[in-house]
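Changelog-adjacent note: as of this version, every example in the card shows the full chain rather than a window. The one below runs 288 residues end to end.
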Amino acid sequence: MKWQKGRRSTNVEDRRAARIPGGSAGGLGGLSLLVILIIAIALGMDPTQLLESSDFSMDSEWQESPYSEEEQNRLVDFITLVLGDTETTWDRILQKELGIRYREPKLVIFSGSVNSACGYASSAVGPFYCSGDEKVYLDLDFFHDLEMRYHAPGDFAQAYVIAHEVGHHIQNIVGTLPYERRLAGMVSRSDANQLSVALELQADCYAGVWANQAQNQELILEAGDIGEGLNAVSSVGDDRIQKQAQGYVVPDSFTHGTSAQRMEWFTRGLESGSLSACDCPEFPPVGG
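Full-length structure tokens:
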């Protein structure tokens, strides 16, 4: 990615000074997202109630950051660029297709654990979006996990993670996220899981819409970047994660979609560059 040039966002909050080394937050400790979901299901809870959108679990074995101070500074700069580009892109799209201005989210960089409007969270849950304060939460060390655990290296793979979480913010703005939350509380656990899958696939599609705009503008994408993004999307499918964690998959427990589904929906947004391509039957249409 030619990310050294471009508009930087001013909506980044750096809370790394509040790090709790190897710590726990809200009782989550070092549990992976998979274990958290299993506990929620066993208790008859909607897993999404634990965190509104925790999309990627994180290996919590790192007591110290695997990145040097210089590398961390570079990642922070990169994050401000990607977030800035999503702001420019989504403001243009929402005004063109829906006639509304984009409400910019904040992105909180933290280390170890963090307090949000959705409660305390450990780094183990991975990046997440909280509609209560309209903020994306990200531990820089997750990018190391993205490369080493999910085998998805590269700048654009990292950008996809940010774009996916911003996709949840788009869902919040247009009303899809609160609609899903209300509906999920009125249906069976199995149906709620399906709603969660639809929500995540649509966020992948919105990430693809952003990538389309960046690609067409030839501002930051280079040859091979889209391949990095598709690899990252494939790496976080429920089937692939469950197979890696436990050696088998349980389709009824899927909450984010399979690798194939996630790639399909990301590609749908990538090829169209339009909100309407991301409409899905589970939710009211928002595309114009």
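Structural remarks: Strands lie at 12-14, 106-110, 113-116, 119-122, 128-130, 135-139.
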